[in-house]
C-alpha cells in the first residue's frame, strides 16, 4: 500500500536516514532523474550527488536531522538544485525542471531521526510568472511611451522631471529644459492632411531623439506638436549649443512646408531655461521660463533658439 501511495504522488519524495542514506526514492524521482530506486536506495545521498555538498540543500538536511528544523528552499535563489528533466529533449539540452524544495524532519518511533525531502515541479508557474512579468514590462513601456512617435510621453516626462529636479537640488548641479515647437504646424496639417502631419511628427521626434547621447537625457512629446527635452547636469551655454544643433538638424531634413512663409520647409522654435545654484527654481517655474523663452522665439520670427533670462 505504501509503495502504491508513493508511486501515485505527483511530486518527488526522498527520505534520508540519520546517516543521510536514501531509504525512500519514489517513482516520480526515478522518472525525472533517470535513476531507478534500486540504484539509489541504501546509498549515501551526498556521495551519490556530490554537486549538492555544501549547497543549501546540504545545510537544510543537516538542520532537519540534527536540530529537528524544517526548511523551504527559496525558489528564487535555488531554481533547480536537483538534476531533474521533464523529458529526454530537456535532458539533452541541459534544461532542468524548475523546482520548489521542502525539507522536513521525521521522528520515526524506535529509530533515529529521518528527514523528508519533497520536490515540486513549478516550471509551469515559473513560465506563467515570467510571462506576466514580461507583459507588465510591456504595459509599463506602453504607459510611458507616446503611441505615435515612440518617444517618452507626458506622463514619463513628469516622472523624470520630478526625479531630475530632486537630484539637481540635492547635488547642486544644473538642470536644463528645452521646449521645442514645430513652426506653423496647424497650417501644415491643414494643407497636407493629418496623415502627413503625423509622419512629420515622427520624423522630427526621431531626429531630435538621435541628438541625445547621454543616458539621463530625455525627450518627450509634451503636446500636439510640442516636445520637451530634459538635460540633467548641463549648463545654459552647453544647452544652447545643443539646442542650436537640434534646430539646424530639423531644418536640414528639408521637409517641404508650403505654408512656411520665410523658409518653405519645416522648422522648429526652441525655448531654453536652466535651474542652477545661481538661479534656483522649481518644476513649475522652470517650465514657465522655458515656455516664455519659446514664446519669445516664436514672436521673433520662428526657427530660432531663445534662452530665458531673468534680467
From TrEMBL:
Q: What class of enzyme is it?
A: transferase
Q: Which Gene3D superfamilies match?
A: 3.30.70.270, PAS domain
* Reactions catalysed: 2 GTP = 3',3'-c-di-GMP + 2 diphosphate
Q: PROSITE patterns annotated for this entry? A: GGDEF, PAS
| Known EC number | 2.7.7.65
- The residues that cross the membrane are none
- Record InterPro entries: Diguanylate_Cyclase (IPR050469), GGDEF_dom (IPR000160), Nucleotide_cyclase (IPR029787), PAS (IPR000014), PAS-like_dom_sf (IPR035965), PAS_4 (IPR013656), Rev_trsase/Diguanyl_cyclase (IPR043128)
| Domain GGDEF stretches | 173-310
Q: Where is the PAS domain?
A: 1-68
Q: Name one Pfam family in it.
A: GGDEF
- What name has this protein been given in UniProt? diguanylate cyclase
Amino acid at each position: 500500500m505504501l509503495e502504491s501511495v508513493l508511486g501515485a504522488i505527483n511530486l518527488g519524495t526522498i527520505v534520508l536516514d540519520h546517516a543521510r542514506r536514501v531509504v525512500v526514492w519514489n517513482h516520480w524521482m526515478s522518472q525525472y532523474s533517470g535513476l531507478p530506486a534500486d540504484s539509489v536506495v541504501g546509498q549515501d545521498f551526498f556521495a551519490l550527488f556530490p554537486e549538492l555538498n555544501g549547497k543549501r540543500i546540504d545545510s537544510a538536511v543537516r538542520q532537519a536531522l540534527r536540530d529537528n528544523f524544517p526548511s523551504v528552499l527559496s525558489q528564487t535563489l535555488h531554481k533547480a538544485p536537483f538534476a531533474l528533466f521533464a523529458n529526454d529533449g530537456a535532458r539533452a539540452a541541459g534544461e532542468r525542471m524548475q523546482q520548489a524544495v521542502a525539507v522536513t524532519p521525521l521522528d520515526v518511533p524506535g529509530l533515529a531521526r529521518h528527514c523528508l525531502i519533497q520536490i515540486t515541479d513549478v516550471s509551469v508557474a515559473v513560465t506563467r510568472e515570467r510571462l506576466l512579468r514580461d507583459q507588465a514590462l510591456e504595459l509599463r513601456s506602453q504607459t510611458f511611451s507616446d503611441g505615435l512617435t515612440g518617444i517618452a510621453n507626458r506622463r514619463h516626462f513628469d516622472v523624470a522631471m520630478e526625479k531630475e529636479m530632486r537630484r539637481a537640488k540635492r547635488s547642486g548641479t544644473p538642470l536644463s529644459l528645452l521646449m521645442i515647437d514645430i513652426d506653423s504646424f496647424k497650417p501644415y496639417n491643414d494643407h497636407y492632411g493629418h496623415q502627413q502631419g503625423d509622419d512629420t511628427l515622427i520624423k522630427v521626434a526621431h531626429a531630435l531623439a538621435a541628438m541625445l547621447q547621454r543616458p539621463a537625457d530625455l525627450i518627450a512629446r509634451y503636446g500636439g506638436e510640442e516636445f520637451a527635452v530634459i538635460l540633467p547636469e548641463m549648463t545654459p551655454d552647453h544647452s544652447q549649443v545643443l539646442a542650436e544643433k537640434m534646430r539646424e538638424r530639423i531644418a536640414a531634413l528639408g521637409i517641404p512646408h508650403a505654408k512656411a512663409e520665410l523658409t518653405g520647409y519645416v522648422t522648429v522654435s526652441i525655448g531654453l531655461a536652466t535651474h542652477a545654484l545661481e538661479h534656483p527654481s522649481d518644476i513649475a517655474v522652470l517650465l514657465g521660463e522655458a515656455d516664455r523663452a519659446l514664446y519669445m522665439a516664436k514672436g521673433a520670427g520662428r526657427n530660432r533658439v531663445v534662452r530665458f533670462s531673468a534680467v
